[in-house]
């Protein structure tokens, strides 16, 4: 029994020693693992050399110079932006003034067209009255030979016809779009009116002399004459009490 107790005590002592050894190994393992982790992290880091004071001052000076350069660039950009904004405002003001001038010119043109149309209407009324009188007097003067109508187109050579065609093309190209081909009938009417003015004595005619029904009626003649007067190719004169149209031409 005594031997058994001694053996049991020895076994207990050995077990305590093994337990202490296990704790020591666990502590070692933890410390060794920490050391390995520190070594691994150290391998991933970079040793930075401590900068010298004079180098630090130079770096500060360089940064100050860069900041000053950036400030100058910013001032230049702000100046250019202000100049661009002022130029844009001037352009907008000029565009607005131009549009106002065009609107005023359009109003003046419309007023001139209305005035010309009113005068045309007065001429037409006079023409109708004169036509009635002329019809009455024609009965009494039937024996007289008929007068040649002013503005009749004389016979021309082939060269003259070609030159006249080129001149008509040049004149019509200066007129509004509606006379330049969008309405072929109106273009033919304009050519007839221009030729009537060119062929008339002293290049001067009255409105009734240009009427050639049914194609070239009174309204078409009025429209063509208004366009020519506005283009300053024809000069209107009513100083004698009768409205006359004189061909001036387009330079």
From TrEMBL:
It holds the Pfam family DASH_Dam1. Residues 129-161 are annotated as: Disordered. Its main location: nucleus. One of its GO terms (cellular component) is DASH complex. Keywords: Centromere, Chromosome, Chromosome partition, Coiled coil, Cytoplasm, Cytoskeleton, Kinetochore, Microtubule, Nucleus. Residues 129-145 have a biased composition (Low complexity). It comes from the Eukaryota. InterPro entries: DASH_Dam1. The keyword Aminoacyl-tRNA synthetase does not apply. The keyword Cytoplasm applies. Residues 74-114 form a coiled coil. GO terms for biological process: mitotic sister chromatid biorientation. It is found in: Chromosome, Centromere, Kinetochore; Cytoplasm, Cytoskeleton, Spindle; Nucleus. Belongs to the DASH complex DAM1 family. This is DASH complex subunit DAM1. The lineage of its organism: Eukaryota, Fungi, Dikarya, Basidiomycota, Agaricomycotina.
